[in-house]
Amino acid sequence: MMQQPNPAMAYRAARAGMPVRAQEADVFRRVTGALRAARSGGAESALRRARALSDNRRLWLAVEGVLVDPTNGLPAPLRASIISVGRTVLKEMEGEQPDLDFLIEVNENIAAGLAGAA
After folding, report:
1. How far apart, in whole angstroms, are the C-alpha atoms of residue 92 and residue 9?
2. CB distance 56 to 107 below 8 Å
3. CA atoms within 13 A on the CB side of 92
4. Where are the domains of the chain?
């Protein structure tokens, strides 16, 4: 019996062949897409918003963790700048009503930079 292809496995396999920066840009785009969807409202918007903000927080905490690693190859001033942006994003998300447009714009700029479009 022939097994049906698993779309998630196919996506992961295709992504594995992408350069690391392209994969990182893709993560930012996916999180940004969730933030956009959370902005749209609707019956499940509170849940969508909470999930999108949680994913964005985890992303930026992971970015900061990578950037503070002393073995990171990026120049120290660039790492410091990105950490500063990340902390601004995290601070914005601590508010009662985070500015989703601001968060989306920051993520889009980072994704563009990673993709080489900045």
Report:
1. 35
2. yes
3. 19
4. 19-115
